[in-house]
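#help-structures
NK: newbie question, is this the right format to request a structure? protein is S-adenosyl-L-methionine-dependent methyltransferase
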Amino acid sequence: MRTEGDAWDIKTGVGSTALFVAAARALGGDEEQALAEDPFAEDFLRAAGDEWSALLDGEAPGHPLVATEFGRDFQEFQIARTKYFDDFFRDATAAEVRQVVILAAGLDARAYRLPWPDGTVVYELDRPEVLEFKRNVLADNGDKPRTDRREVPVDLREDWPQALRDSGFDPSVPTAWLAEGLLIYLPAAAVEHLFERIESLSAPGSRVAIEQMDTLPEEAAAALAEQPDESDNPGGEWLRLIYNEPRSEAAAWFTARGWTGERVDVPEYLRAHGRPAPSPEQSGALISTLVSLVTAVRP
């Protein structure tokens, strides 16, 4: 259960979800027709060891990512959102945006794997322990960022705009913002505050990409809550980490303030790219059917 001021590192609490997502990217990106791949995801899992290395080596046949309908759908969903946000950054830099902010960066390795134009600065915000884990793993492997990458060790419940400015962020130039895998872990009031802060720091020409999820239906939430806390049954633990409450719809929020917003639901996005799309009738695919991806641009 989340509590005010709770803390975590890469293997506990909210931080541990980054490893689960990285595992989905590693497994899903190995498929022949995968929409995207993240070669650094495996490095993080190897460094975490234990069940994650076993999963990569095919020695965890009962793991929910490989043994359940949910796992197969979750892999497809994670690869789809990876492509969506990779394309977002490619479009942003093509539009001459050279300042990037990744909120709750977790194990995002885009600073290391995307082709950034000269002069691009990528700011990564997350808890110090999470950033340290990522930095050490990549450094130990000899990997270097492909642009100016700046860590901003800060909890998003703190004054992160000031921490961002202290790291060199310039609010007078266009920025490409990313909030991937974040909103569901924030209460509704905090999401509203996050949007307000992004807008206040965004010069004309800025753009934002957001992943959002509708609230889980009461029946589905109740079923997850009854699941035991076991490694092969992660739904109950995940439910205790999120805030399952209505939030402002991102595309509508930014559009109402003069931005140009677009939203695509994950099943629609998968169909548009020739991939099998889940339906609400598939119990294991419920989460991805509730997720949508949003891009908004400030004129």
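mod (FA): yep, format's fine, and the tokens are attached above. The chain has a mean pLDDT of 91.
NK: thank you!
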